[in-house]
Amino acid sequence: MRGKVFTGGKKRDFSILRVLVPILVFVLIAVFVIVGVGNVSAAGSLERRKGMEQAVRRSVVQCYAIEGRYPKNLAYLAENYGLMLNEDQYVYHYERLGDNLMPDIFVFPVG
């Protein structure tokens, strides 16, 4: 018995499935992670846009509360109320309807 290795009489089976299944599982996990990160990024982008729109609305309401009229444009809010506009990432729609009517305010992402 010296010099011989006993393997129990079974041949090792390295079939395609033993190699392919772990690779497929790894690929599926990687795809789920990538899709998940993309969804989180899209949700964050939507929340930032909503936050910017709310900031504009708050500044507009603050101006109305202090001055008794809505501002003529967003530049007035930036100069007098400290509103910081990110025009590299967003397009701002501001339509004033009158001194005492809430203006239409929309924020859209660029691109």
Q: How many H/I helical runs?
A: 2
The helix fraction, in percent, is 40-55%
Oligomer: single chain
The best one-word shape is rod-shaped
Low-confidence stretches: none
Quick one: how many beta strands? 2
Question: What average pLDDT do the residues reach?
Answer: 84
Report the major sheet.
Answer: 2 strands, antiparallel
Alpha-beta content class: mainly alpha
**Percentage beta strand:** 5-15%
- Order of SSEs: HHEE
Radius of gyration: 31 Å
Strand order of the largest sheet: 1-2
What would your notes on this structure say?
The protein has 111 residues and is mostly helical. It contains two helices and two strands; from the N terminus they run ααββ. It has helices at 16-67, 74-81, and strands at 90-95, 104-109. It is rod-shaped. The model has no long low-confidence stretch (mean pLDDT 84).
Write the layout of secondary structure elements.
Elements (H helix, E strand, L loop, with lengths): L15 H52 L6 H8 L8 E6 L8 E6 L2
Keywords, separated by commas or semicolons:
single chain; 111 residues; mainly alpha; two-stranded antiparallel ribbon; 2 helices; 2 strands
Write a brief caption for the model:
The chain has 2 helices and 2 strands, in the order ααββ.
